[in-house]
Design goal:
about 140 residues, alpha+beta, Jelly Rolls, six-stranded antiparallel β-sheet, about 35% helix
Length: about 140
């Protein structure tokens, strides 16, 4: 991970509250409204589209990585995040993340670059993913 990205994760983690979660716990689901972001302190969180036929491969995030950052821009989560290994996370509420980015142009630029890269990656995958069909 580039240093500037780890700097953003460290700054967010500095103000985060501690959350310990067991394997299988969902942090959020695709389409949920933003509650906040998570910084992985230990363990693994996997991001996925929630569709077994998706061409977007699940992505595992480990210590020092940020989960849910693009939702601070869009207002909702584009992917589902699930704890895939017992984990300790840092949680920062959405309004607090926005406040931090507003007062630090450097952190804001890093976050914007990360979010734009992730949003582009997810949108490309979602365009190629068949819509979810609900069974009744």
């Amino acid at each position: 991970m580039p240093k500037e990205m780890s700097d953003l994760a460290a700054e967010l983690d500095r103000v985060a509250s501690k959350v310990s979660l067991r394997k299988g716990t969902a942090l959020f689901h695709r389409g949920d409204l933003l509650s906040g972001i998570f910084v992985v302190r230990s363990g693994v969180v996997t991001l996925s589209v929630d569709n077994e036929n998706s061409i977007y491969p699940p992505r595992a995030l480990g210590p020092g990585e940020i989960v849910g950052l693009p939702a601070t821009l869009t207002g909702h989560y584009s992917l589902t995040a699930r704890v895939t290994e017992d984990s300790e996370l840092g949680f920062v509420a959405g309004p607090r993340v926005m406040q931090m980015l507003e007062v630090s142009p450097q952190l804001c630029m890093i976050a914007m670059r990360l979010m734009s890269e992730e949003i582009a990656r997810v949108r490309t995958a979602l365009k190629e993913t068949p819509p979810l069909e609900h069974q009744e």
